[in-house]
Amino acid sequence: MRDPVAGQSSEPARRAHSTAPVPDLSTLYYRVVRSSLATTIHDETGALALFNAACSGLLGYDAAELASLPSAGILHPHDAPELAAATGRATHSPDGMSRARVRLMRKDHSAVEVDLLLTRVLVGRRRYLMVESTPVVPVASVA
């Protein structure tokens, strides 16, 4: 998959906060739930720790369905290497940020292409990965 153009201005880039520490989990929680972008938080093992309502609109699943889905059920299988590389870049880069373009699989089995902004977030001594997804082409929300 192709990376978005380097230096391209985007909504996630304006909202992300690099590796800056977050004082506590409640601050991170409110940042995520108030975001209009489909946003997920993953713990150090990669497990999904938190997601917001925009994820349901993007993918067509309700919250209970999303919480029980493995990541492999959402990511297009051909895009796994791209996401793994972007995760590595965000985890190990000095600024704690990375971008990727991948396809996510919706509940209706269609694919939606998204630009991802992956940001390393520190809460105390714990590291999380925040992933903000912006559809390349707007997706109609599923009620």
Q: H/E element string?
A: HEHEEHHHEEE
In percent, how helical is the residue content? Answer: 25-40%
Structural class: alpha+beta
Total strands: 6
Low-confidence stretches: 1-17
Biggest sheet statistics: 6 strands, mixed
Number of helices: 5
- Radius of gyration, rounded? 14 Å
Key features of this structure:
globular; 28% helix; six-stranded mixed β-sheet; disordered N terminus; 143 residues; 30% strand; alpha+beta
Give a quick summary of the entry.
This protein is an alpha+beta fold and 143 residues long. The protein is 28% helix and 30% strand.
Give your account of this protein's structure.
This protein is of the alpha+beta class. 28% of the residues lie in helices and 30% in strands. The chain has helices spanning 11-15, 25-33, 53-59, 63-68, 80-92, and strands spanning 21-22, 38-42, 48-51, 97-105, 111-123, 126-135. The longest helix has 13 residues, at 80-92. Mean pLDDT is 84; it is low at 1-17.
